[in-house]
């Protein structure tokens, strides 16, 4: 729709004044060139060059034979007995992380939107976790969740919720909970930042008018706030799904994918595979991740567009 | 006209960006600059190496050495990438687990000929000399800087409180003593079990000790009559005892314990026994929870055979094949391997030293080092063995073994299935080699 408007505007002007023609076009191209070269050289070239490893026998421990092996690396991934566990872990990791992140992030953003003393300080404190490396957060949480010396079991036993320590990271049923708690803590901030920014764009007049009409707070939330910032919410969720799916740091530092692959997701699997030098198979896992995310993003954006069209 | 100027400016900027990326950093005042990369980085160790390099630079005015210290977890991968690119690395730390892959890929400089007639040979221990030769091709890619070896760290006070006269000497003793000490209510545990990263090392230590009479000392995973050590009844008995120690005498969360948790568990006073390398001595000495009188070390535990297989593991200094300064690099390697430098390095990093002269050094005769001396003096009981750590699939093996150990710990696999899987793995690897 937007493109059509732009094209019509272009058409209505003189055809000779098209911005990408003649010497003017060359100038623009020259200015764009450094960025294009940079992106091409440092993003697309390594990506494509790395992708071809997925089809080769590329093991850093023995590079004397890096012959073309077709889809053998992909076959090895799908035939791995842990593939099913890793797939379901990846889905649980994304869904169980993003829902609480979204809800808590939204709630904090609504709270921070109100004006109160030291609001700036609170904002800074809440945004702080986003500045810390995921790996470091993983290490911190690994110690916090340590059964014997960790602060979490200590607190739980002091308030009388448990009478014996929970081996969080050692028990297959709790290890995933622990890594997700760490991830939620880390990711809430991003939702808060994005939603708070979007909330600034909702005009106060709309709330005032709704208040005059006697609307309740929940009504205002669902009829004014959410519809107005819907696009930001949708994009933020999409971005976060991609990031969380791609985010091995916390799990890698906390459990290394263990115990016995119970917290292994695709990207931690990729990291452990590179550690044993098998860049071919790791690269194949990487391509698989890109493929999954591409399909997800396409469906998600399509669904969002259809929903918008239905609403409008 | 203006647009042309802008066009040229844009292209010039692109070219400048591309060119700056290619610029090198060689000093042009006649001095040679070597780049040295370490792998098992920690801040104290980096300081020690830097100190030695300063001494080297003072002795060799024409050479400067820049030390690169990547974080331990990523160091070997970083070194691999640097070696593959063929630039930026002259001298490097070569570990027993990296010498195989690095030399297979032709990344390491063969020092065999250059070291003919080197005066330092006479001062090296037999162990050190044997480690200078890479078994697969008989070439010298590195000179070791020291050895790691297992000993039992134990709490003298807790052992006494529990009514025992002395530290455990066998794995069965350990099971008995650790079970007696274990008291989860008081947050006190027997053994600092390793269930997480590198869990395989201790499992293999007990298996090879139980089967010490049957194994090939040059390849501890192999039996003298052929086949793998994992197929023996001794291996089954060993893992039975070992997993008993987990069930009866270890913290439940130790399924996930790696090096940091084990050392923390011992040094904060909550676990009574720890099987570790001597480098831990320094860490425990700094503990505020334990006094010098509360802990000591004992020799590695013997198996049902009455013997212990001490895995000899080491690291050393080598040269990258792509170096432009082999002569200067060799000078540095020699400097680090003779005289005071290797003794300083070994002492500061709690390593078993490479020089014969250390046997007379008082430092290695007292306290926590006593047990190492005792083991060295009784090689018939504490048999030094070489594990096949130099094979190119070692990291793959370690990952597989660690995962399967955790599967046994959480009840998803039986001990027998684990051993059968290991036996099959090594049998197939040796068959296809």
UniProtKB/TrEMBL annotation, chain A:
InterPro entries membership: MetI-like, MetI-like_sf
Coiled coil: none
Bilayer-crossing regions: 26-48, 91-112, 124-145, 175-199, 220-245, 279-303
PROSITE patterns: ABC_TM1
Protein name as annotated: Multiple sugar transport system permease protein
GO CC entries: plasma membrane
Matches recorded under SUPFAM superfamilies: MetI-like (SSF161098)
Keywords recorded for this protein, A-Z: Cell membrane, Membrane, Sugar transport, Transmembrane, Transmembrane helix, Transport
Family: Belongs to the binding-protein-dependent transport system permease family.
All residue ranges annotated as the ABC transmembrane type-1 domain in the record: 87-300
Domain of life: Bacteria
Chief place of localization: membrane
Keyword Cytoplasm: no
Automatic annotation (TrEMBL), chain B:
Keyword check for Transport: yes
UniProt keyword Iron-sulfur present: no
Matching InterPro entries: Bact_solute-bd_prot1, SBP
Signal peptide: 1-23
Taxonomic superkingdom: Bacteria
Entry keyword set: Signal, Sugar transport, Transport
Gene3D superfamilies registered for this protein in UniProt: Periplasmic binding protein-like II
UniProt cross-references to Pfam families, sorted A to Z: SBP_bac_1
Entry's family note: Belongs to the bacterial solute-binding protein 1 family.
Protein name: Multiple sugar transport system substrate-binding protein
Lineage: Bacteria, Bacillati, Actinomycetota, Actinomycetes, Micrococcales
